[in-house]
Amino acid sequence: MNDQARERVLTELDHVRLATLSSRGPGARRPGSMGIDALLDEARVVPSRKVGPDIVTMYSQVQLRFVDDGVRRRITLCYPQDADVRRGLVSVLSPIGLGLLGQQAGAMVRWESPDGSERIADVEAIAFQPEASGDYLT
After folding, report:
1. Is 94:117 a contact under the CB 8 Å cutoff?
2. Are 121 and 64 in contact (CB under 8 A)?
3. Contact call for residues 101 and 77 (beta carbons, < 8 A)
4. CA distances from 80 to 13, 21, 86, 91 (A)
5. Is residue 113 a part of any domain in this protein?
6. In this structure, is residue 2 part of a structural domain?
7. How would you label 88-112 residue by residue, b for 16+ Cβ within 10 Å and e otherwise?
8. Rounded to whole angstroms, how far apart are CA atoms 75 and 16?
9. Model confidence over 14-62: pLDDT tens digits?
């Protein structure tokens, strides 16, 4: 099943914080924010204490397997100000970040890379999710 066929789930806190990064928030539109509006509109929003432990939330560590070459990589989904690709910290406003947020373990995620090629990865596991560890404020 691909990412378009699955329901996306956001916590209330993630939804509120991401709305400030979208075109609805204060200030100018930020790069990558075009797709965030659709995600905010279409996702099911749940209280942080009710989100399943297998859902990608902000600051989740996600184990991916890239379909084209089989490479496995662990990334942490973060806000733009914390992004550092060398350390595996990927902005939620990047194409892969927008593809991952709200997905469930087992989903296949598609996005366009900076060179214009399509990338596909399986979400093999959620190695860490703040809410699952009792952190509802990150």
Report:
1. no
2. yes
3. yes
4. 16, 9, 14, 5
5. yes
6. no
7. eebbbbbbbbbbbbbbbbebbbebe
8. 23
9. 999 999 888 654 433 444 444 898 899 999 999 999 999 999 999 999 9
C-alpha–C-alpha distance, residues 129 and 58, integer Å: 8
Q: Is the CB of residue 90 less than 8 Å from the CB of residue 75?
A: yes
CATH number at residue 105: 3.10.50.30
Q: Quick one: CA torsion of 55, 49, 43, 101, rounded to 10 degrees?
A: -40
pLDDT (tens digit per residue) in 71-125 = 999 999 999 999 999 999 999 999 999 999 999 999 999 998 888 899 999 999 9
Q: Which domain holds residue 65?
A: 9-131
**Cβ(11)–Cβ(47) below 8 Å:** yes
Distances in Å between the alpha carbon of 91 and those of 45, 47, 96?
20, 23, 8
Split at pLDDT 50, 70, 90, the class of 5 is low
In 3D, which of 45, 63, 34, 50 has the Cα closest to residue 102?
45
